[in-house]
Design a protein that fits this description.
Blueprint (H helix, E strand, L loop, with lengths): L12 E8 L5 E8 L6 E8 L14 E4 L5 E8 L5 E7 L1 H5 L6 E7 L14 E2 L7 E8 L11 E7 L5 E7 L14 E4 L10 E3 L5 E3 L1
Antiparallel strand pairs: 1-2, 2-3, 3-4, 5-6, 6-7, 7-8, 9-10, 10-11, 11-12, 13-14
Length: 210
């Protein structure tokens, strides 16, 4: 009754999202506001099929990103091994520079709640371009053994030249997939604003974006 808590830590919890962990449970991510502050960080929790917190995961979850400024609007996809690939809007540039803009960052959490080997604490940016980056959504790529195992796609709103939709494909190690542009591939750049993209795997290694 009333569900299983992902966290009982002090502070407001907002905008939860979750994906299947491949073993009947979930990995969930949410925005968490630290008491006495006006910013939010991202935290994650893994819940097993029977409702228990997965072994090794703290009762109140693990930090995904606690960088300066707020981290918002998370999207995630399963990594095929009990963990998850996570993307979010990050305001660390906004917090540290007068004209900073939101950018998209990504992180890979392993099945045991640790940051996957080779990934930086507080995540990595997806595109070194001018302009805002908003509303990331993530899908698995179905596995790519020649590129280090299962990878993922991220789509987002991009303000480098108007408000357009872009997508990028990453390997499981966080590198840009072979043959993909360094700062993402344009999905739609027609006149007028495009917003709030969503993405699903197509079952053949690609993805469908709306």
């Amino acid at each position: 009754a009333c569900g299983v808590p992902l966290s009982r830590a002090p502070g407001v919890k907002l905008h939860p999202v979750s994906v299947a962990d491949g073993a009947g449970g979930i990995v969930g991510v949410w925005e968490e506001m630290t008491p006495g502050t006006a910013t939010t960080d991202l935290h994650a929790q893994r819940i097993l099929l029977d409702g228990r917190i997965a072994p090794g995961w703290p009762a109140d979850g693990v930090p995904v990103c606690t960088a300066i400024g707020s981290q918002l609007d998370p999207g995630l996809a399963p990594d095929g091994a009990g963990g998850a690939f996570i993307a979010w809007e990050d305001l660390r540039e906004n917090a540290s520079t007068p004209n900073g803009l939101p950018k998209i960052f990504i992180q890979h959490l392993a099945a045991d709640g640790t940051i996957a080997p080779g990934w930086p604490v507080n995540g990595a940016g997806i595109a070194a371009t001018a302009g805002l980056q908003l509303h990331p959504r993530v899908a698995p790529d179905g596995g790519a053994p020649t590129e280090g195992g299962s990878g993922f796609y991220v789509t987002w709103e991009d303000g480098r030249a108007g408000i357009d939709i872009y997508v990028q494909r990453f390997t499981g190690s966080g590198a840009v997939a072979a043959g993909w542009p360094a700062n993402g591939l344009a999905v739609c750049t027609t006149p007028g604003e495009k917003g709030a993209p969503d993405i699903v795997a197509d079952g053949a290694g690609g993805a469908i974006i709306a």
